[in-house]
Amino acid sequence: MGSDLGGCDPSIRHSGAAPGSSHGNDGKEILEMTASHDFRADAGWARAQDDAEPLRALRGEFLIPPHGDGEQTYLVGNSLGLQPRGVRQALVDELDDWARLGVEGHLHARHPWLPYHREVRDGLAEIVGAEPVEVVAMNSLTANLHLLMVSFYRPTPERHAILIERQAFPSDRDLAASQIRFHGYDPAEALIELDADEHGGALSMAAIERALTERGKRIALVLLPGVQYLTGQAFDLAAITKLAHAQGCVTGFDCAHAAGNIDLALHDSGCDFAAWCSYKYLNSGPGAVAGAFVHARHAHAKLPRFEGWWGRNEATRFQMRPAFDPAPGAEGWQLSNPPILALAPLRVSLELFQRAGMQNLRGKSLRLTAYLVWLIETQLGDMLEILTPSEPARRGAQLSVRVRAGREAGQSLFEYMVAHGVLGDWREPDVMRIAPAPLYNTFADCLRYAETVQAWHRRHA
Ligand SMILES: Cc1ncc(COP(=O)(O)O)c(C=O)c1O
After folding, report:
1. Which CATH number fits the domain that encloses residue 193?
2. Domain range for residue 154?
3. Same domain (yes/no): 171, 36
């Protein structure tokens, strides 16, 4: 499959720290990586950065959509990641094994189907900073959050509120409100939506702390994002969990925009559960199989759950006994035997993450996004306002920008960008999201974004 990390310093290939440890870049390192003193808005400079980038060969592992005679400038991996080249063959291999082996593929396929979810488990655990027993690939994101809330949202008359953020992704709001109703309570009273208190729509730790101090005793569950979909704000999961647990609240995170984007350390954060999708930064295809995390301290707990035979202990699963004997850890939440054709792209994608190392990817991501910030602030400041927090540790790859000239101008700019092969995405009412994904985006992509905005401005000024 494809090229190796040509020219890559071998010492960086496996520098991801042990699963479950806090494997993030520290504050001083982050400041050094994002220093803008040498940034230049010229093509030669951008090319030189890309040529010197240790992870540069990974771009060749992806199919970049065409635009005219060239390629798109694809800055929308926060919505749908690109297809790794190896996916097609991996799918063909599974189809061939099914044709060749029929049911025997469960044991004798090149990647046997029976233990298939194990093939992705360790790679996923490394990406989200978890122990293997804490993660499982299954279902879709919203389904996983519902299943986990069956176990972790246990409301009582005194404590039945759920705390989310006001601008939560609609699905998060829907699942919180419907779980509240399912348990016989009223979302009008029990769904606490925390207002953003920072310029640009971010939520400060002080606001979260205040809400927990004032209302913590009636909050059963805190459900916040790892990275907020609209603003791009990255949250401090460990700090939130500590505050929430001190008030007796269970804590879960929607990591849709965080998995494969920032240095998650789910185990060390201490949170009770988390879930994410795999079609964004994890590049596993539209509607890909999602992930779920259950902290190791619950691995053997007798928690209420919705049960299915694939959640049974493997040793007894095929004895077809009447009683449900859960597998330890996150696997105990599985319902059905896994969709192999849907897991194959995830397996291929995780191999690329493993080759790069999550910490290295985050390092490159910090530099790329810092460059994009610098370009916007120094070249496009009259046109665009960045909504995403300015501190690099409080954001991932994504920047959310608002067009100063208003919503109509914003839509005109967005359409112009798409027509010129520069892909971001648009979120109502007036936010354009752009995310240089470190697996395949480049400094040249960031520069091309800035140049295309300038070209639009010249046309419309
Ligand atoms: C933050 C967030 N939560 C939930 C969802 C819903 O995901 P799914 O449709 O895979 O359940 C999305 C989808 O983009 C999302 O961005």
Report:
1. 3.40.640.10
2. 91-354
3. no
What is the Cα–Cα distance from 165 to 87, expressed in whole angstroms?
Answer: 36
Same domain, 108 and 76: no
Instruction: Determine the Cα angle at 417 with ends 411 and 420, to 5°.
Output: 145
Flag whether 255 is in a domain: yes
Residue partners of 249: CB distance under 8 A and separation at least 6: 163, 212, 216, 219, 220, 221, 222
Distance CA 123, CA 58 (A): 17
Q: Is 354 in the pocket of ligand 1 (CB under 6 A)?
A: no
Ligand 1 pocket, residue 337 CB under 6 Å: no
* Secondary structure (DSSP) of 389-409: -SSGGGB-S-EEEEETT-HHH
* pLDDT at residue 20, as a whole number: 33
Q: How many whole angstroms from 142 Cα to the centroid of ligand 1?
A: 7
pTM score over 0.85: yes
Angle at which helices 141-152 and 170-182 cross, to 10°: 40
Which tens digits make up the pLDDT trace of 224-253? 999 999 999 999 999 999 999 999 999 999
Q: Are residues 80 and 201 in the same domain?
A: no
The answer, yes or no, to whether any atom of ligand 1 lies below 6 A from the CB of 447, is: no
Signed CA dihedral, 412, 417, 420, 425: sign only: negative
Question: How many domains are there within the chain?
Answer: 2
The amino acid occupying position 225 is P
